[in-house]
Sequence to fold (177 residues):
Amino acid sequence: MTVAKGQPREHALEDLVENIQPRLRGVLATFRIPFVDAEDLLQQAVLTFLMKRDEIKDPARWLVGTLRNRCLMYWRSHRRRLYESVDVAILEALAEPVAPAQDRLDLASDLNGVLVKLSPRCRSVLRLRYGLGCDPAETARELGYRSSGIYKILERCLAGLTRNLISIGILEHPRRD
Fold:
């Protein structure tokens, strides 16, 4: 990053951010990042820029690209938390020993209706994981997958299950405020 003579690096950074502010706002708007989180993502990108500024050839392009990546990671982590909460909710629902018989039958009926809409691969993964209580490593071994890859497969299957549960009204869609 070139700094004009007599101009401290901090002013150069302020000028850079001010010059590309419309592009930064565009990225945040495209990804529909909530206002309360947008500032944090931008600050993370700027801090990373400050640590690497001597290696960066095109600061404006780099900063916009880094913010875009931060936005992608933001929504991935939100989806992952939703899938994990579905994971925990399913395990807890299946583990309840005192659930009334009718409630268990209703839950089983709803789950079966949703599971039928999933691919055979996902049905197998979910049956082993939740129906038979296998941990991820056992599930991978039983289906012939690598242990390191089963988490991604399980996440995709939970994503499909979550979408289907939302579509029939068992789960509420997470809000993007």
Summary: The chain has a mean pLDDT of 81. DSSP finds eight helices and no strands in the chain. Helices lie at 9-19, 21-30, 35-52, 59-95, 101-115, 120-131, 136-143, 150-167. Residues 9-77 form one domain.
